[in-house]
Specification:
By secondary structure, the protein is α+β, with helices and mostly antiparallel strands. The protein has helices at 2-28, 30-34, 112-118, 221-224, 315-319, 433-440, 490-497, 521-537, 541-547, 569-584, 602-621, and strands at residues 38-46, 51-60, 67-78, 87-96, 99-105, 108-109, 135-152, 157-173, 178-186, 192-200, 205-216, 232-246, 249-268, 271-287, 292-301, 304-309, 345-362, 369-384, 388-397, 401-410, 417-428, 444-458, 461-475, 503-513, 557-559, 588-595, 629-633, 644-651.
Length: 654
């Protein structure tokens, strides 16, 4: 009895001392255990019940004063006898009040010394692929009110997760029991994530549902700061997703659900970037193994965005953070070849865009070009990357105009097949003035523009038929401060092209090979239009005079008697009208060829020459440039021909 009593006394004594001894050892030898100072306020161990409770533990930084990780309570209870049957059985695990502080300084994290402490210099042994006969059974796992703080010292960025909660009723590995659990995370700037998971070990299957509600985009602003410069990121994101499949083939899982963005507003130091009322995506099925994405619908409402282009940068340049130069790295060992990824299969059953507003601004032109598109709407069904598609687009244009686009074509092999119909009605032409100034040096001061375009692409060959309808177009004088891309007789041609109702109708085909490195659609359009205008503007001066409302029936010839001295008032009036026409466009060149009988003597010949000088001097006095007037004497007249000046016109195009 004495011996038995002594043994029981030793067991009781050991039971009473194990907790303070363990606590003292941890507090005094923490650096030996984990490489850093550790302090525990309270530690209780019951070797009979398998119960361990730790209260208020602090794991410090390398400096020994700042706290790296702390928690209020860790409570674990195990069935120790189950170990005899190769089973790890935990009745419950509770971790409350976890607080982790993660810092990054350059490429160095504040937990590196911990990793280095447990790293082994021994060569790695080959992985044992023999199935284990151990069974892991964890029940009533709970993480309560945990917090994670992240700080980038050099970049001066900070974010944290203030409320993380995990609940797992049961988790089994190696057995045939089912497992389930849940995770709840609250975000600092607003929003909650709830995840519920279930696993059937017997069927090797799992299900997972995730609900992210009212997640504020501000939560990710510090994370995206390395890639984009966004100072303002308002809006919320929601997701309700479900995934199910087999544990052995995770990539073949079936994923479906709904994603939504609401009340998005993005801006940076350069100004507003984009805003959005709502974006809703309904996912029918995503299969990562097949690289297939079957989307039931995508609906976008109230998208507002602007793109601006300057000579040396653009809105995109203002948005993207410049990439850091890569440092030389050690050569890596050769790896096994990776099989090429499967081509993406995408199908969108319905795409609807409503109430869109887009603005394009070009500050590279002599005058700022700002072109707003309002009330944008897009409708398409069965959009796919691997087949034929169709879509319709409509939008409002400046000055009350309207845009309508209908498209049929392929996205994967777009150069092989495209059909586009475009209709522009009632566009205020003054909005296009910066472009006409850039290309021709002349501004548009008034006019309404309509255009109908039918374009097709077959095997990289563009066939574009355009019908222009212009009403009351008015072009200003050529700008002296602009060097035009092409010198076109825009103003003169418009005078001639107008009908009696002040309307212009033009058919303009554009063709080209889009695979040609020098292919530029806009330049091709202006070249085609320029050729048309030059051809039109080579009409006689009479057409110009009539277009300008001079009321002359004949501006092809000025009758002058061979023996006439000087010019009459009527003849000076005709020359004045010609001067007005020449001054209307600096590209107009007027020719005056004196047609007279052969001179009988030198005195008559000198008279012809003097008359040319009078005509030339008068035109210059009226403000006509010398380069715009050609006064010559032609071959002697045959008997019966009219004497005087034959009037011709041409356009001087460089």
């Amino acid at each position: 009895m004495w011996i038995v009593g002594s043994l029981l006394g030793l067991i009781v004594l050991a039971t009473l001392l194990v907790s303070p001894i363990a606590k003292s050892y941890i507090n005094n030898h923490g650096e030996e255990l984990v490489g850093r100072k550790v302090h525990v306020d309270e530690l209780k161990v019951n070797i009979y019940t398998g119960h361990v409770a730790i209260r208020r533990l602090n794991l410090y930084e390398d400096n020994g004063s700042d706290v790296f990780v702390s928690f209020d309570t860790l409570d674990v209870k195990a069935k120790l006898l189950k170990l005899l049957g190769h089973t790890v059985y935990l009745k419950h695990i509770t971790l409350a009040g976890l607080n982790a502080n993660i810092e990054k300084d350059g490429e160095m994290f504040n937990f590196k010394s911990l990793v280095d402490h447990f790293a082994s210099d021994e060569p790695r042994e080959e992985k044992d692929t023999t199935p284990s006969d151990w069974v892991l059974k964890f029940y009533n796992i709970r993480l309560s009110h945990a917090q994670i703080h992240y700080r980038d010292v050099r970049e001066k960025k900070y974010w944290h997760l203030p409320d993380i909660n995990l609940r797992v009723p049961g988790f089994v590995l190696g057995g045939e029991e089912s497992s389930e659990g849940g995770l709840n995370i609250g975000f600092a700037e607003g929003g909650h994530l709830n995840i519920a998971a279930g696993m059937d070990s017997k069927m090797d299957s799992y299900t997972l549902t995730a609900k992210l509600e009212a997640f504020a985009l501000k939560n990710i602003q510090p994370l995206v700061a390395d890639f984009v410069k966004i100072d303002k990121m308002n809006g919320t994101f929601e997701a309700h997703l479900k995934a199910e499949g087999t544990l052995g083939e995770i990539l073949k899982s079936r994923i479906g659900g709904t994603l939504a963005l609401k009340n998005v507003d993005l801006a940076n130091a350069s100004g507003p970037l984009a805003s959005l009322n709502a974006l809703t995506v309904k996912v029918k099925n995503i299969n990562l193994d097949d690289n297939s994405y079957d989307i039931s619908s995508v609906k976008i409402d109230g998208l507002t965005a602007q793109y601006e282009q300057w000579k040396d940068h653009s809105t995109i340049d203002n948005l993207l953070v410049p990439s850091k130069p890569q440092t030389a790295s050690e050569p890596t060992a050769a790896t096994d070849s990776v099989a090429p990824a499967k081509p993406m299969q995408l199908r969108v059953g319905e795409l609807v865009v409503t109430n869109g507003n887009l603005t394009y601004a070009d500050h590279t032109l002599p005058d700022d070009f700002v072109f707003p598109i309002t009330n944008l709407g897009i409708e398409t069904t069965d959009l796919t990357l691997n087949g034929s598609n169709n879509a319709k687009l409509h939008a409002g244009l400046p000055g009350g105009g309207h845009l309508l686009v209908s498209w049929k074509g392929n996205l994967d092999h777009w150069k092989q097949h495209q059909d586009i119909f475009l209709s522009i009605k009632g566009l205020d032409m003054k909005k296009l003035s910066p472009w006409t100034v850039y290309y021709t040096g002349q501004p548009i001061e008034d006019g309404i523009f309509s255009l109908t375009t039918r374009a097709s692409i077959r095997n990289s060959q563009l066939d574009n038929q355009n019908k222009l309808d212009i009403y009351k177009a008015k072009v200003g004088s050529r700008r002296k401060d602009v060097e035009p891309q092409q010198k076109l007789p825009l103003k003169t041609a418009l005078y001639i092209l107008k009908d009696k109702d002040d309307k212009i109708l033009i058919d303009m085909p554009v063709k080209g090979d889009i695979d040609n490195p020098e292919f530029n659609y806009m330049k091709l359009v202006w070249k085609t239009l320029g050729n048309l205008l030059v051809k039109v503007a080579t009409s006689p001066v009479r057409a110009l005079g009539n277009a300008m409302g001079m009321g002359k029936d004949d501006l092809d010839f000025i009758d002058i008697a061979a023996n006439q001295r000087g010019l009459t008032s009527e003849q000076y009036h005709i020359l004045s009208d010609l001067a007005t026409i020449a001054k209307s466009d600096s590209l107009v060149v007027i020719g005056l060829e004196q047609r007279m009988p052969a001179p009988a003597n030198d005195t008559v010949a000198r008279g012809y020459s003097m008359r040319n000088d009078i005509v030339r001097r008068y035109m210059i006095e009226q403000g006509v440039r010398e380069s715009q007037i050609k006064v010559t004497t032609g071959e002697p007249l045959a008997e019966g021909e009219r004497s005087g000046y034959a009037i011709t016109s041409e356009m001087k195009i460089d």
